[in-house]
What we know:
InterPro entries: AAA+_ATPase (IPR003593), ABC_transporter-like_ATP-bd (IPR003439), ABC_transporter-like_CS (IPR017871), ABC_transporter_ATP-binding (IPR050763), P-loop_NTPase (IPR027417). Residues 1-230 form the ABC transporter domain. By secondary structure, this protein is of the alpha/beta class. The protein folds into two domains: 2-212, P-loop containing nucleotide triphosphate hydrolases (Rossmann fold, 3-Layer(aba) Sandwich); 219-303, Alpha-Beta Plaits. Helix content is 33%, strand content 28%. The strands form three sheets. A six-stranded mixed sheet has the order 6-7-8-3-9-10, with helices on both faces. It has a four-stranded antiparallel sheet with strand order 2-1-4-5. It has a four-stranded antiparallel sheet with strand order 12-13-11-14, with helices on both faces. Helix 3 crosses helix 4 and helix 3 packs parallel to helix 5. The longest helix has 16 residues, at 164-179. The protein starts with a strand and ends in a 12-residue tail after the last helix.
Amino acid sequence: MHARGLTKRFGALVAVNQVDLDVPRACVYGFLGPNGSGKSTTIRMLCGLLTPSAGEINVLGLAIPRQAEALKRRIGYMTQKFSLFDDLSVRQNLEFLATVQGLSRQDTRTRVDELLQRYRLDDRQEQLAGTLSGGQKQRLALAGAIVHKPELLFLDEPTSAVDPESRRDFWEKLFELADAGTTILVSTHYMDEAERCHRLAILDNGNLVADGQPKELTGKLQGRTFVIRADSPRRAKEALDGHPDVLSVAQIGNELRVLMRRDDVTLDAFRQSLHGVDTAMDVESVTPNLEDVFVVATRKPEQHEGQPA
């Protein structure tokens, strides 16, 4: 899947601005960004539900939106609202979706039986979908999205309404699909989920501000992250907020995670610069994480020196 110069305007608002994307086959490709960053709008354009204002899109060899109708049977789409029929049973939901996707009666029966077992819903197949737990609804929605064995699966923040255990289980199911050859594009605002992706794009205010493998993105910030343990973390944070070399400070429990503006500040030099702070501190260099990448990538334009690409 490829997109070049992808842009969407709603009146004076530019929701997506000149985005270029390359999504490899059988890859779990993540969209990370805050609410309103353009993730959902981008996904809707890629699957043909929304016409772009400008740009070119090629999905599975088809020109979108011109060939969007031909794309429908080759993709699956799942949103955070799960799009289930609450007054139909688990089985009826899957049978209806299979019929919509053009499966024969025999193929529907075989495929539905397979999905009920795979997603641990076979003991609830007669239960109304509206009475399921959040995790069960999530599994049913995923089963419905892949009932026709799509080549490409779009997931728009599919884990926002479920507990952490259900999220972990859901991601295991995604990797099973990717291992079987399905390409998956998933949007999220969870850092731990973003770290799981084979490749990741970060969107901010409609702009693509970072793109690459998670380890590649974090590697570009090597030497810029420190952890400080202080007797008075709040006092230390107040001093660090005004430090000329410090980009951001976040308190995590009794520790402070510090992100520097540059990678040429040595540990000894940083320690030396803190000698005037009125609290005992221990400083340690640590490995950058995706939250650090996100902070650098989503700064205001005038602050973007050293941004990971």
